[in-house]
Amino acid sequence: MCCCGLEDLVEKEEEEEEEEEEEEEEEEEEEEEEEEEEEEEEEEEEEEEEEEEEEEEEEEEEEEEGEEKNTHTHMKSFSDPVFFRAGAPKSSA
Q: Which terminus of the chain faces fewer neighbouring Cβ atoms within 10 Å, N or C?
């Protein structure tokens, strides 16, 4: 009788230890997954920030180019033949 009871206790203890190990492994896996998710989120945020910075730089460059073009086209409009044609009377002969 004594031996059977001890064997049962040992089996229960081993099962409990296995369950605890499994739970610990699951917790570790969950922690690793959370860390990976956090890293991915951080990477995404960094990428978004970089994209925003690039867009801002592009907008600034476009604005600068636009200002240059505006001054250039303004000066050019007076020498443009279309400008002169628009004001000239058409002869109907």
A: C
In what helix (H) or strand (E) does residue 78 lie, and over which residues does it extend? Answer: none
Of 1-5, 28-32, 63-67, 75-79, the one with minimum mean pLDDT is 75-79
Give domain limits for the chain.
32-58
Contact of 83 with 77, CB cutoff 8 Å: yes
- Whether 74 and 80 have beta carbons less than 8 Å apart is answered as no
Lowest model confidence (mean pLDDT) among 22-26, 53-57, 70-74: 70-74
Tell whether pTM > 0.90.
no
Q: Which of 41, 42, 22 is nearest to 30 (CA)?
A: 22
In three-state secondary structure terms, 1 is: coil
Return d(Cα 48, Cα 51) in angstroms, integer.
Answer: 5
